[in-house]
Amino acid sequence: MPASHATEIRNDWTREEVLALFKQPFNDLLFQAQVAHRQHFNANEVQLSTLLSIKTGACPEDCKYCPQSARYDTGLEKEQLMALEKVIEEAKAARESGATRFCMGAAWRSPKDKDLPAVAEMVRQVKALGMETCMTLGMLKEEQAHMLAEAGLDYYNHNLDTSPEYYGEIITTRTYQDRLNTLDNVRRAGMKVCAGGIVGMGEGEKDRAGLLMQLANLPQHPESVPINMLVKVAGTPLDQQEDLDPFEFIRTIAVARILMPKSHVRLSAGREEMNDQMQALAFMAGANSIFYCEKLLTTPNPKANRDMELLNRLGIKPETRHVERDSEEEEQALHQALAEAKSDHLFYNAAN
Ligand code: SF4
To answer: Domain containing 168 — which CATH number?
Structure first.
């Protein structure tokens, strides 16, 4: 496909077309991804999100990659739902180190109705700090999605994980359709969608193509597309999984960028094991969002200052928030946050 065709917004990709993108020579694929990326984004900006586990472990689901499943002995300490004050403290710290989006994750199959008021209050208070909010709480019913939207939740994360064909090898306690239904409920409630998957779980290229095709053929592309590299946590069924060729990971990022040119493609779990060169290649392939915190729910992530050093060496700047703000108060909170962040030695000044 010529690079000039790389930026069309489409929702009707065929598996053959997506596989053909994967099979291009590496340099051609990266060039095409860069063209798509530059059409819609500043290629030298990366959006920074921070992720906090607000309820850890004891999940009844059987996702084979996940240390939080109660079915696997991973030595993880279970925790109850975090107190509101602690969540706000963590959100303030994230804001002070330059993050613009605060994601909160709970290891639930789905939230119980009795938990909703507490998480809705977390959303209200984090938003009042001037940050974008995101939650990942498992499957959502339509009314629950509406409650979260009313509280002001900007994004809901629910990953498709892998292709429909490979899905049964990884999870048996919920169906692919259950996942699609949750994404549909999130959209109907008016929230933005964060949905992606995990590679390196023993799937083939056709499955990576199948995952991206599913995401790109949703009625509306997810605004955020996290691409995770499997983190092999001891005690999970995938802890002995063979490593994926790193170039296949980069190809997955590049194809995601081409299929969903207006979405933020997030370089997510697995970054701790990637060297600087690999992360730079991922940015070149069109990744323009990272999790910027020391822990991703329960697995380690590069330290914030190492991230800033790398972005600085690459001349990449943190993306500032481009969202409608509801009130003057919120606008002031954001300016205050940025002013405070600029005085921090870890803050890379995007205005320079
Ligand atoms: S990925 Fe989510 S749903 Fe699956 S076991 Fe882990 S916490 Fe539970």
So the answer is: 3.20.20.70
Residue 48 has pLDDT above 90, yes or no: no
Burial of residue 328 (CB within 10 Å: 0-12, 13-18, 19+) is exposed
pLDDT tens for residues 186-209? 999 999 999 999 999 999 999 999
**Residue 74, domain member (yes or no):** yes
Phi and psi based region of residue 222 (left: phi greater than 0; alpha: psi -120 to 50; beta: remaining): beta
Alpha-carbon span 333 to 348, nearest angstrom? 20
- Against a cut of 0.85, is the pTM above it? no
Question: What range does the domain containing 301 cover?
Answer: 32-342
Mutate to test the pocket of ligand 1, among 51, 59, 140 (most ligand atoms within 8 A of CB): 59
137 is a domain residue = yes
Please indicate, yes or no, if residue 13 is contained in any of the structural domains. no
In a domain, 14, yes or no: no
Across the range 232-257, mean pLDDT stands at 94
What total of structural domains would you count in the chain?
1
Catalytic residue among 66, 174, 251, 293: 66
Pocket test for ligand 1, best of 64, 66, 172, 297 (most atoms within 8 A of CB): 66
- Annotated catalytic residue within 95, 101, 179, 194: 194
